[in-house]
Amino acid sequence: MVVKGRISRITGPLVVAENMTGIQMYEMVKVGEERLIGEVTRIKGDEAYIQVYESTTGLKPGEIVEGTGSPLSVELGPGLLGNIYDGVQRPLPFIAELLTKTSPKRSIFVERGIDVSPLPRDKKWHFTPGEIKVGDKVSGGDLLGLVQETELILHKVMVPPNEFGELTWIAPEGDYTIVDPIAEIKSNGKVKEIYLSQRWPVRFPRPYNLKLDPSEPLITGLRIIDTLFPMAKGGTGMIPGGFGTGKTVTMHGLAQWSSANVVLYIGCGERGNEMTEVLERFPTYKDPWTGKPLMERTVLIANTSNMPVAAREASIYVGITIAEFYRDMGYDVLLVADSTSRWAEALREIAGRLEEMPAEEGYPSYLASRLAEFYERAGRVKTIGNPNRTGSVTVVGAVSPPGGDFTEPVTTHTRRFTRVFWALDTALAYSRHYPAINWILSYSAYVDTVSEWWAKNVDPKWKEYRDEIMDILLRENELQEIVRLVGTESLDESDKLVLDVARMIRDGFLKQNAFDPIDTFASPKKQFELMKLIIDYYRKASELVHSGIQASKAKEALGRLYVDIVKARFSIPNDKIEMIEDLRKRTLNSLDGLKSKEVKSA
Amino acid sequence: MSSLYGIREYSKIVEIKGPLIVVEGVSRASYDEIVEVELSDGTRRRGRVLDVSKNIAIVQVFEGTTGITTTGTRVRFLGRPLELPVSEDMLGRIFNGLGEPIDNGPEIVAEEKYDINGSPINPAVRAYPEDFIQTGVSAIDGMNTLVRGQKLPIFSGSGLPHNILAAQIARQATVKGEGEEFGVVFAAIGIKYDDYLFFRKFFEETGALNRVAMFVNLADEPAMIRLVTPRVALTLAEYLAYEKDLHILVILTDMTNYAEALREISSSREEVPGRQGYPGYMYSDLASIYERAGRVHGKKGSITQIPILTMPNDDITHPIPDLTGYITEGQIVLSRDLYNKGIYPPINVLMSLSRLMKEGIGPGKTRDDHAQVSDQLYASYSRGVDLRSLAAVVGEESLSETDRKFLKFADLFEKKFLSQGIRENRSIENTLDLAWNILSEIPEEELTNIKEEMIKKYHPKYKK
What we know:
Number of helices of chain A: 16
Largest interface: A-B, 84 and 85 residues
Distance between the termini of chain B: 67 Å
Structural class of chain A: alpha+beta
Oligomer: heterodimer
């Protein structure tokens, strides 16, 4: 039964329709003669309040609103990877293609009322059935077969979550489109066809069997993240920062280098050119883990700041549903959302139009619960279905606090539901210290859980060195306060050494140039060796200082080696790590000279 | 959108509030439709529909509601959104804030008519901006490079020379290797008459007037028109760039006045306010202006935007600069301190940023040392500035010798590199060589952002 009503009021992206009895909450509807896409967000009597995902200019009261019978859903199947969608999963390249034919002058714009299916209907995929046999009892998540979706990703064709029964037919190996049936399941006497694709409502999390503890680090190649504030596969993190602090560059870095199998990049209310950058660069970048083009593991959701605000609200749900779909195949998925503040603002705008009672700064009172729901969809899980699979969704959200003020509602609420906090700092950004992650304010709840991995795979002393770096940086921070008041002269020699080494850590370890071919990605081993280089120098110099030698002498003894140390991050590539060990030896030797000289002169 | 529904006229006004009138008995008015209000004395004003229910429409009147009465006023719904007739002949002409000619020139013969709200550019057809624009200003070219298709605002304060800087950029901007000049679309949004005169004279004197289209809404003209002016200007810019293959530079001044008008209309509609009374949707609204810039695949033209805004109280965290900074691709920040020191252009480089710089510079575009030199200038100048405040407390003598060199560097940077004449047009090579000259004042081993080979190639010490 399709509900049909008429528009009674239009105000911005909100449309009220009457005579809508029988419509469901969150049902997708088609609005007006142009059949714009909308979603029901409130029902009152026979009136439905609809947020419309396209511009409402020109809509009139009296135009028809038609229900679709189902909530806003995404189409899941092969063909997602490498694609770029708008906030309601319309493929943007197809929109451009379509408009080139119908109105070439306007082909560069996203015009309204365009109805295109998310996955290509005519593309054939090579399907290989799995070990499953006709007559087997199957249920949601069971593996039916495989499709090589891209060079990087083997797409696992699964029984949709809510289906179960007896497998009565499975297609032989061959080429199929997503609308050709590939299997049939019989339950309660009814036969149901299964396709390469399935649909899932975006506002409902896809089911899993069991949630596991995140224990393996998500390596990103960014030293300050991996070493000081690590992310775990299946974890949650946030990157708050004022404008110009490098949120987007950091997000791009994560999407580019992290050790995930699949990456969902959601440009939520951000700049058009940023999406273009990903779109143009990723096909040319190689995945550091497999050597294949990065685009083959990436799905982009682009709802730029000037695209309709309601679709922005939907975009993060579209993204996370796709992420869960690949998780269900047993992959590690990273979802980055830039920026969740724009999503929250979309929520605020819609709530304002609905004339809801505002809470803090005009945001609706359910802001916190919506954020919680979203971040809770992250996690490492044992998936449903056979064979046994483990997959994860890691969620990192950028937050854009107005005026860089971390006490505003979106930042404070997001903090409650995420476990890694990478605080971007305006002062660091002004002095072009990138990534501008403030090491005093930031934290990660995964340091202990991932240290086992580092101990096993990189070096048993990882945690010890990592903690020592943190100690030096914290000490430097305290000393800076004193220096600001009285200058450096009155400090202890050991404190002066801390200041020198902290500068070395900042310049030679924490700073990382995203645009330098060598520096942009540091392997875990390189990260450890650089850390060891600096800390071993510190330890030895510290001993000397305790035996009465001035801190400045320790730095002088290094001579040109100092430059070599701070430049090692971009002069020594990941595959020549032994050069760092060599540098470390020379560094320590240079201090030996100092010792003997001092002894002689004494 | 075509005028499918024809013109309908109503006269039952039930409420007048600020710039809004509420009209009853309206049938089939559409959202964002344009209306004409005829007062009892025959004067006509324009407005647009902000909210429409079954028989009620709320109309925002651009010229204000002064003198409108509930009786005897007729409201005509024109059956179309606000459109701008566009033509290449509009370059060289002057228009009011709604896009109507005010220079007594010939009538514009429209080649097309477009909805001034535009449509979002499909991110999938955008081409990433990467053509270096040489503005001849060292602080911009060297450290905050502008590229074709970028939106780079100037954050200024009242009384600072943002107009002079914008004019200097408009005059000097060229793309290396191409002689082609930019077409300029200029939108004056609620600015003072003398500011308008400055630009007009400037364009006349430089002989540029025939490649400039000016849209003018002055400070004493109705504030509601300010919501329309930038959109009208950008509609023309889009037409010229994407249909006529021109490279267009759009100057929007002053966006602060635009945001004030937005707040005014929001509060008369009794909307729930966000920060400091500005509406919660101001980010999206500003984005619908700033995002109308860029390059696209398959079209030769481009739109480069330089919006100017004055930060209330010089406060960069104020919602207007704050939201702008989140949308634009960087910002050029002017500093009152530098201005008071007599430095022109008084650009605070530490607070300034060009997000698209990295793709626009380097070998083949500017020079191979550009990125590293720029990083080094930033690192060294910021260290110098930090030390300045330290020296103010503990005295310069108690600083180390190296630190004193950084102090000196910061001074040189401001006097030699930053400072330049209003008509001084420096080539990028010139700018970079100048940078090396001042960088050679600090010890070579402190140049940690520059690779060895670049030091050998460009450092004055090795060049002789």
